[in-house]
Amino acid sequence: MMVSLQDIASNTRLAREMALTSQYETAVIYYQGVVQQIHRLLATIQEPSRKQQWQQAQQQIAAEYEQLKELMNTLSMFENPMNAPDSRTIGGGSGMRMTAFEEPTRDPDVWAPPPPRDPDVWPSPTNVDH
């Protein structure tokens, strides 16, 4: 099947438009398609200089695709609600699971700070011998 240069240009434009309009899943599909189309085109090109130009274009499209995947990964980290802690293993997969938002353990030997004093409350009267 012959690869059309118009299809490559059109799909590249669509991939970029989808990425710019936050339709990332659709953009990923278009980027994957463009990289595959250029790969098929490269198999048909005999002229070295033209082949090199298309290889550079393929590398640029692949770099844009990787940046999009990184962006999607970053955005997925923000989608975790704060009240549902992340339960990935911490420390090399040792089997010990600890959530990223877990509070440190309270030490029972350490006293809590005293409650604040109300300046409007007088202390109880004491007996004094004169």
Helices and strands in order, then pairings?
Blueprint: H1 5-20, H2 24-44, H3 48-78
Helix pairs in contact: 1-2, 2-3
Describe the structure.
By secondary structure, this protein is mostly helical. It has a domain at 5-78: Phosphotransferase system, lactose/cellobiose-type IIA subunit (Methane Monooxygenase Hydroxylase, Chain G, domain 1, Up-down Bundle), CATH 1.20.58.80. Helices cover 52% and strands 0% of the residues. The chain is built from three helices and no strands. The chain has helices spanning 5-20, 24-44, 48-78. Helix 1 packs antiparallel against helix 2 and helix 2 runs antiparallel to helix 3. The longest helix has 31 residues, at 48-78. It starts with a helix and ends in a 52-residue tail after the last helix. The mean pLDDT is 83.
Shape: rod-shaped
- As for the CATH topology of the domain at 5-78, it is Methane Monooxygenase Hydroxylase, Chain G, domain 1
Beta percentage is: under 5%
Question: Number of DSSP helices?
Answer: 3
Largest sheet: none
The arrangement of helices and strands along the chain is HHH
CATH homologous superfamily grouping of the domain at 5-78: Phosphotransferase system, lactose/cellobiose-type IIA subunit
Give the helix proportion (percent range): 40-55%
- Gap from first CA to last CA: 113 Å
Structural class: mainly alpha
C-alpha-based Rg, rounded: 31 Å
Task: Let me know the number of strands.
Answer: 0
User: Ranges with pLDDT <50 over ≥5 residues?
Assistant: none
CATH class of the domain at 5-78: Mainly Alpha
Mean pLDDT: 83
CATH architecture of the domain at 5-78: Up-down Bundle
